[in-house]
Design a protein that fits this description.
It contains three helices and ten strands, in the order H-H-E-E-E-E-E-E-E-E-E-E-H. The chain has 182 residues and is of the alpha+beta class. Strands 1, 2, 3, 4, 5, 6, 7, 8, 9 and 10 form a ten-stranded mixed β-sheet that branches.
Length: 182
């Protein structure tokens, strides 16, 4: 009888330990520094995330939101990408505003060994910023002002659209100077 009660106690203990380890999932804010990235890259509204063995991840936010860093950043409800040490590539779900136009952020990386810089790849543009503004997790704003506002899909540019517009701009300037010289 004592043998059965010891086995029952051991079974209850291991089950409790297993349940505790499953429910004590590491937060995404704890995970990012383990990959050499600052924890404040994501807003405080993360409800869940998943990370596969190959580094692919999905982050779920409670709602879309905005955070003002050096630039205004928009976060969709779902953010995906590939996490590796010092970088996030194939990024989807984060945009940055420049001169009233929203651009997709394609990649985020830091220097290795670490420095005070973080780099954001937006199409063909690589922007270097001070990493300090991303070290703490920021509160989310649900709108730009008092009314909810999401970036218009017509104003969200991916890298192809940006390069195409740049090419058109250069072509029009060529035509203007070639044929309409004063």
């Amino acid at each position: 009888m004592a043998k059965h009660s010891n086995t029952l106690i051991l079974l209850i203990f291991t089950t409790t330990l297993t349940l505790f380890s499953v429910s004590a999932k590491e937060t995404v804010y704890d995970l990012l520094p383990k990959f050499g990235l600052p924890s404040g890259l994501l807003p405080n509204s993360v409800t869940d995330y998943s990370l596969s063995d190959d580094g692919r991840f999905v982050v779920h936010l409670s709602d879309t939101c905005y955070i003002q860093f050096d630039y205004l950043v928009y976060y969709e409800k779902t953010i995906t990408g590939k996490l590796s040490y010092g970088s996030i590539s194939d990024l989807k779900g984060i945009q940055v505003q420049r001169v009233f136009i929203w651009f997709n952020v394609d990649e985020i990386r830091v220097d290795l060994p670490p420095s005070n810089s973080i780099y954001f790849q937006v199409g063909i543009i690589n922007k270097k910023l001070n990493v300090d503004q991303f070290k703490t997790v920021h509160s989310c704003r649900n709108s730009l002002r008092s009314s909810p506002c999401e970036p218009s899909s017509s104003l969200v540019f991916n890298s192809f659209n940006f390069q195409f517009l740049l090419l058109i701009f250069m072509f029009l300037n060529f035509i203007r100077f070639r044929f309409f010289e004063y």
